[in-house]
Amino acid sequence: MSNSYRLLVKNAQQVVLICSDGEKYLTKLGMQNLSVIENGSIVIGSDGLIKAVGPAETVNAEFSEATFDKVIDASGMCVLPGLVDAHTHPVWAGDRVHEFAMKLAGATYMDVHRAGGGIHFTVERTRAAAASDLLTSLSGRLVRMLRAGTTLVECKSGYGLELQTELKMLQVIEEARRTLPINISSTYCGAHAVPKGKTVAEATEDILQVQLPRLREQMSAGTLRVDNIDVFCERGVFDLDSTRSILQAGKELGLNINFHGDELHPMNSAQLGAELGALAISHLEEVTDEGITSMAEAKTAAVLLPTTAYILRLPQPRARDMLEAGMIVALGSDFNPNAYCCSMPIVMHLACVNMRMSMPEALAAATINAAYALGRAHTHGSLEVGKHGDLLVLNTTRWEHLIYQLGGHQELIRYVVIKGDVV
Ligand code: NIG
Ligand code: FE
Predict the structure, then answer these.
(1) CA–CA separation, 64 and 307 (whole Å)
(2) In this protein, which residues make up the domain named Amidohydrolase-related (predicted)?
């Protein structure tokens, strides 16, 4: 006979709830005042959802240990929600270690791109790769992310730039969703670059007339699940008008708008996203003051990517200005062949040191706000009754060690739990 409850984590020195009033996102004040229980316990039911969380003495008295499949004594340890990575490009073949060397020697991201490298290099190899090989490498990367504490991750297509390969990538993501415990939010990013030999207008036409209609067919047949639509809105890539028409068409298919904007040049992507009701815009290194104001008003989340600014030596995203303006700030690893980082603890560390966020702000950005950016804040991103039992148990008495110990997460993360199962 199965027990009534799946998991009890008891007597944790700290249980970091993040929030406790059903908030769907936090802005500056909330991020600075995270909800934390000292000496707490948490109960996950047989459906994988959180049934109780609170002071250890109350929870321990209410639930008999005999009714649990598993009990973890977390004395001297901390419990946090699983981390949420709001931006990754994890499906690709080949690597670009040679380009890292070029960039260290002074080439910019766009120098490499214009010379036919960068995204184009990865597109060639990904088009040629078998789906089974892409799935193998994707699975390895997702397992690395899990070990680093990520329990919900956004995964983009975007190294096909034509129907067949874009679908192949989305199907590979779908297969990973079926076979791995990590939660996935999938994104169609057919407008990640203009394919070689095509103009922006031709590429846009192909997306609107060929790729999106096929996506619609597969989605309504139930053979493919896609959650978001993305475009790389950038000078020399997709301009504002083509970005608008692609995002609008995606929205009509029911996809959340979540795109790359204002990264290398100010493009007014922020204003466009706010106008279209985008859930999130990523990068924003070059966002203007007006862009910040419009995103704050529209509640469009900023997904900041500290690894990209670090590797490409870009100006840092203006996290402090965004927080002061009341924006919803989230974080992502931007894992891709340019920024090879699977670790949200490292991302939070960089956000603190380079973007001047505090540790509580960075944790909120990598949990509830990243979940908001993916439209999942009602089920993920905090430890509240009714949400998924996705959590981390850290072998330390203060949760801040996860950010403070640069690269120390491998030792610190004792258990990663998804829906009450240790994975
Ligand atoms: O978010 N900026 C565009 N896309 C990715 C990079 C993808 C690549 O270089 O392969 C990014 O950084
Ligand atoms: Fe990206």
Answers:
(1) 45
(2) 79-423
Helices (H), 148-277: 163-179, 200-206, 212-220, 240-252, 269-276
Measured distance CA(371)–CA(24) in Å, rounded: 8
Going from the Cα of 82 to the center of ligand 1, the distance in angstroms, rounded, reads: 25
Ligand number nearest CA of 154 is 2
163-179 helix and 119-128 helix, angle to the nearest 10 degrees: 80
C-alpha of residue 122 to centroid of ligand 1, in Å: 11
CB 176 within 8 A of CB 155: yes
Ligand nearest to the CA of 336: 1
Distance of alpha carbon 152 from alpha carbon 379, whole angstroms: 11
Which of 85, 87, 88, 89 maximizes ligand 1 atoms within 8 Å of its Cβ, making it the mutation to test the pocket? 89
**What's the CA gap between 332 and 420, in Å, rounded?**
24
pTM, to two decimals? 0.98
| Tokens (6 digits) for 182 | 């990590």
Burial of 228 (C-beta count, 10 Å sphere; 0-12/13-18/19+) = buried
Euclidean distance between CA atoms 34 and 400, whole angstroms = 12
Structural domains present in the chain: 5-81+382-422 (2.30.40.10), 84-373 (3.20.20.140)
ipTM above 0.95, yes or no: yes
2: pLDDT confidence band, cut at 50, 70 and 90? low
| pLDDT exceeds 80 at position 1 | no
* CA 109 to ligand 1 centroid distance, Å: 9
Q: Which of 276, 177, 162 is nearest to 227 (CA)?
A: 177
**In the predicted model, what is the mean pLDDT of residues 192-197?**
95
Beta strands in 19-149 (DSSP E): 35-45, 50-55, 68-73, 78-81, 83-85
